[in-house]
Amino acid sequence: MTLVAILCATLVTGIGSVWLAALLGFGVLARYTAHMLSLAAGALLATAFMHLLPEAFETGLPARDLFATLLVGLVFFFLLDKAELYHHAHEQGHGHDGHAGHDHDGHHHHTHGSGKGGWAVLTGDGLHAFGDGILIASAFIADFRLGVLAAVAVMAHEVPHHIGDLVVLRQSSANPRAALLKVSLAGAVTALGGLVGFFLVERLQGFLPYFLAVAASSFVYVALADLIPQLQKRLSGPQTAAQIVWLVLGMGLVSLASLAAHAHHVH
């Protein structure tokens, strides 16, 4: 019965949060599409610094080990991005490759965004979701009601973060449905984490901080290497102010949701 509850909760949490994010981000907030990049950057940075890394450090592992993991993760996603760019340029031919160095104009996301927006976000999402599944499983094992609360808390903090993911994926894909499907599949990894967590929760607890640190590195990389550079354009005063407001809003939404989730968290 507990296993069935864990699987149901993790599937609803992992996939439901993505669909709710799509409904909000491209339904209710669709008119603010121009500001979604700022919101995405803020949400990804806050997810890394206000949720994932604090969770990792609270386990008591040496800070040096976790920062080393974060550093290795950043280098890994840089190399992954390089490999994806090389593959993308090779497919397009040498004629299109000349655009790769001119990312500061409006063509940035057609070339550079393909690698960062795709693999880095999805890899980070998968690791993050796997960790969430383990946390939900451990909460259900401790107490059924606590498991339900943990699932609701996880879903709440995932929604603003997934809005950011969908923005990143949609700008690097001509097909919005493909972006939704990819993020939904990454979210479904929550169920895998729940399943594995049910059987191996004690053994996996020691590795969870490293999952969190690597996931954090992917979101920091995408925000700073892909999204923030696209925001660094000469704009009017009101446009710049709007960018900052949406950036802070993305950070605020995730931070508030993470604080709420933390109240129900089981270590």
Keywords:
single chain, 267 residues, mainly alpha, 9 helices, 0% strand, globular
Describe this structure in words.
The structure is a single chain. The chain has one domain (2-263). The chain has helices at 2-28, 36-57, 63-92, 94-97, 108-142, 144-171, 176-204, 208-231, 237-263. It is 85% helix and 0% strand. The protein contains 9 helices and no strands. The longest helix is centred in the middle third of the chain and has 35 residues, at 108-142.
Question: Which helices and strands, and how do they pair?
Answer:
Blueprint: H1 2-28, H2 36-57, H3 63-92, H4 94-97, H5 108-142, H6 144-171, H7 176-204, H8 208-231, H9 237-263
Helix pairs in contact: 1-5, 1-6, 1-7, 2-6, 2-8, 2-9, 3-5, 3-8, 5-6, 5-7, 5-8, 6-7, 6-9
Describe the structure concisely.
With 267 residues, the protein is mainly alpha-helical. It has helices at 2-28, 36-57, 63-92, 94-97, 108-142, 144-171, 176-204, 208-231, 237-263. Helix 1 (2-28) packs antiparallel against helix 5 (108-142).
* Topology, number of strands: 0
List SSEs in N-to-C order: HHHHHHHHH
| Structural category | mainly alpha
As residue ranges, the low-confidence spans are 95-115
Q: Which percent range fits the helix content? A: over 70%
Q: Major beta sheet, specifics?
A: none
Domain module tally: 1
Strand content: under 5%
